[in-house]
Amino acid sequence: MIEKVVPSKDGQSVLLVIPEIQPVNQVELNLSLKDADGSQFTEQAYLTINAVPGGKHPNMKELTKGRAYLWEEIKRKEAERKRLKQQQKKNRKKPKK
Q1: Percent of the chain whose pLDDT exceeds 70
Q2: Contacts of 2 (CB under 8 A, 6+ apart)
Q3: Are 44 and 34 a contacting pair, CB within 8 Å?
Q4: How far, in Å, are 29, 53, 86, 87 from residue 1 at the CA level?
Q5: 3-state secondary structure (DSSP) of residue 25
Q6: Contact (CB, 8 A) for 23 and 60
Q7: Could you tell me the sign of the dihedral formed by the alpha carbons of 83, 85, 88, 94, in that order?
Q8: Predicted structure pTM score
């Protein structure tokens, strides 16, 4: 949630104060704005927040590495389950002596 909007002195940009902001792959901003003449317009923007200076959360690079590790771990476990299942099928097919 945006807590505060601080316009720049030249009026060309704003600082959005968002206390709980953290790195994410995608943020959607839907804005209702007024131009210099006072005419209203809407704008939609999609952004990636890679890092938050001074933030307490890991940056996107660290998060991505963590996700990649988890994905590799999931694939490894799935391959192991598949191998065990195939081994069990082989063991069931072998005739008993």
Answers
A1: 90
A2: 16, 17, 18
A3: no
A4: 11, 18, 51, 53
A5: strand
A6: yes
A7: negative
A8: 0.49
